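Quick question about two entries, pasted in order.
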Amino acid sequence: MIKQILGRLPKKPAKSGEKELAGAGTSLPSPTADARTTTDLTMSSRLVNPNSYASTVTNPGQNYAARNAGVSNGFTASAGYEALPSFRDVPASEKPTLFLRKLAMCCVQFDFTDPTKDVKEKEIKRQTLLELVDYITSATGKFPEPVVQEVIKMVSANLFRGPTPAPRENKALESFDLEEEEPVMDPAWPHLQIVYELFLRFIQSPETDAKLAKRYIDHGFIIRLLDLFDSEDPREREYLKTILHRIYGKFMVHRPFIRKAINNIFYRFIFETEKHNGIAELLEILGSIINGFALPLKEEHKLFLVRALIPLHKPKCVAMYHQQLSYCVTQFVEKDCKLADTVIRGLLKYWPITNSSKEVMFLGELEEVLEATQPAEFQRCMVPLFRQIARCLCSSHFQVAERALFLWNNDHIEGLIKQNSKVILPIIFPALERNTKGHWNQAVQSLSLNVRKIFMDHDPTLFEECRKKFEEEEAQEASVRSKREAIWKRLEEIALSKSAQ
């Protein structure tokens, strides 16, 4: 008897603060408002429907939860999942409540690994999500708190799903080429894309109040959003990139936290795992952020350059994100030319020894940095820099030597070199001479002759001094080599004579 009475009592509503929050997004053309859809989110005080905002939010999706008791990762009681009326078929006063009911309905999860399972219900959910996108796009009044809360709840339920085992996680990173591997496509993408689009438009909407939404798009939400960047599906990472950028722009209070959280991802990638699918997208976001840094640069931003961006040159898979990394680094030098010495020395610290393709990338980045470098900063690092360039000029890999010689095609860099030719020419002269006489690649020989002529025309006296010194050193080396060979020959004769006795 008592159990029956207790069973009829209403259950205690869940606290809003205990709900997980979530989100994600992408870069798509600006959505066009659907003229057939109208929105009236400001009429909550005039609602006559007993299912008010408050009652709906207290236990959103309660009807669906009751029908689907015991369901964990997928919807099984398909008989309870029915389409709700269209927004066009209900009075304007009922649309806000219907909107919340549709959001709650879309919190239900399905198993997309089996395309034959729950086909009807999946299509109902897809159509409902499309209606929600239209509704948000055409909103004409500020979204009240219950709507914000339920949008975040629905987005969280769909995007922050359980991790799926990655087919490559047990492979050594260097054993395969990620650029040639087929990307892993999420089978749930037809639904996830609409959820991402909905959330993107919700963030971009002028009807979304940042002061209100930041209660639900909080630090926990941002961390889980950043975790999704490791997705192997490039379409998802593209949405995430755009959505995070919009969040950064709209929620100023979260900006320091977002930068710190991205830093932590980089640190873990550089010093622990060297495995992450979203480094390029995160760097693309940061490139835009760095571009907007005010001058003078804060110490925090300079530390980010030294502790995160420069060490990102270390991992073997740097080719996957080097273009975005190079842009970020160059942005720092363009904003503060005094950082050129720090950046160049950082590049030299992580300069590859046995990876020729990586060397070519480093030389390309070096050219971009030098193009933004002023004479004072150039002079600070030119000695170690051109010692490395001299080694590149001598490389047996023709692309490395060729790329190093291409530096002289840049007028700004050539000007810096000419201004400091008395220091630079003695360092690289031996490499140029050996290339012109003995490099196996004809293009490298030709380019070396051109560079040699530049120095000869610029300062004939210095060039002649370097040539004489080079010939003297070559003669000394030949003499030492001859003496060494004579000693070895004498030792062989002694050994033969002793063995004959």
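Here is the second entry:
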Amino acid sequence: MRTSLNIPDDLLEEFDRTWQAEGFDSRSRAVREAMQEYIEAHTRLETVSGEVIAALAFDYQHERVIRDLHDVQHDFQDVITTTSHTHEGNWCLETVFCRGEAARVRDLVYRLRDFDAVGRVNVLLLRS
């Protein structure tokens, strides 16, 4: 199946450098693998149940979203056990360590991903 996507030039250039450096045969092959990894991560997050331990790492533009992120963290203090924070200029990197019901941790991940000023949210998930 053929499809088209609108991708910023700088992101596409970086993606092309990456897949070529890793030795893929084509951009299409690299896109398929990236999509598969995304689907696997999403499926794992969606299907896990019961008590989990998780580390959520996310980057964000401090001035645009800090108050909202603090509100979210307060809303989820029942599962957040520890946070770690560092920054470079207006960009911050935060790691939130969680323990609790998988559904509650999943809700936290989706709340964090709702913000335009959050670049990405990576999840390391363990079943306890």
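Reply: DSSP finds four helices and four strands in the chain. The two ends are 41 Å apart (CA to CA). Hope that helps.
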